Amino acid sequence: MEFKNKIVWITGASSGIGEALAYEFAAQGAHLVLSARRESELQRVAQTCETHGGSVLVLPFDMVDLPSHAKQVNQVLQTFGRIDVLVLNAGVSQRSFVLDTKFDVYRSLFEVNFFSIVHLVQQVIPVFQKQHAGVFVPIASVAGRISTPRRAAYGATKHALIGFFDSVRAELHGHGVQVSTIMPGYIRTEISLHAMNEDGEKYGKMDPNQAKGLDPNITAQKIVHAVSQGKNYFFVGGALERFGLLVQRLFPSIVPWMLRKIKNT
Q: Is Ribosomal protein among the key words of this record (predicted)?
């Protein structure tokens, strides 16, 4: 699949992986729809994307505002007439122990990372069915396969996301719809700074492994290439996370022991 003149809608496009994906898709000639809550940051990203010559629609909204989803989809269709790729990148992480975490924090994480995505996907499926084509690109996480200490709620949301899109992939295959589930490891973004703590407030600290993570621009290049190749699942990250996934697949009984050795930081 080539992305020249394709309509690519990216949620969570104001920073991190979403921002890097916007630049990479723009460089490949796509027309973009950029969504997140912060309009000023979206405008900043849009200015860089426009230097590649494609059109950019800045469409700010909060993913948990479910009643607005139909309106957002209609706005994209009115502007471009179709949606070719929907990158579901908006989300929030977590750093807190299971017992200490207020129950409302669990609910909030699922509202952002899972239920809001399910609802938006339901609005876009009829569009893809009518077109007999379309690509969903959910940005899950290695945590959706191996959930480490202090990330129980986050890992659970990403595990749910992977499972949900397994069904979407099977149900919509006959309609020409592709699902490329992306599982990033440690990427050098500010995700841990904005993660929720046990009270639902910002964690505000940079994880050491995050600080040493893969460059977001390289991450974006790898993701876009994987989507173009029609990959069903794609891991992107470092050797540590890759090793963990390999052990889980080949020697799953070892994984609980490995997780107990992780420092609770």
A: no
Is 203 designated active site? Answer: no
* 35 Cβ neighbours under 8 A, 6+ residues apart: 9, 10, 11, 12, 13, 42, 59, 60, 61, 72, 90
pLDDT at 191: 92
The single residue of 106, 154, 186, 203 carrying the catalytic annotation is 154
Query: Phi and psi of 77, rounded to 5°?
Result: -65, -40
Contact (Cβ atoms closer than 8 angstroms) between residue 224 and residue 25: yes
Report whether pLDDT(265) > 60: no
- Mean pLDDT value across the chain: 96
Using CA atoms, how far residue 122 sits from 66, 130, 165, 229, 232, in Å, is: 11, 13, 12, 25, 20
d(C-alpha 145, C-alpha 180), whole Å = 16
**Spatial separation of the C-alpha atoms in residues 215 and 187, rounded to whole Å:** 6
Q: Is the pLDDT of residue 250 over 70?
A: yes
Domains and CATH numbers, the chain: 7-260 (3.40.50.720)
C-alpha 210/C-alpha 118 separation (Å) is 28
- Per residue in 86-111, pLDDT (tens digit) is 999 999 999 999 999 999 999 999 99
Collapsing DSSP states into helix, strand and coil, what is residue 51? Answer: coil
* Tokens 């496009």 found at: 13
The model's confidence at residue 207, banded by pLDDT at 50, 70 and 90, is: confident
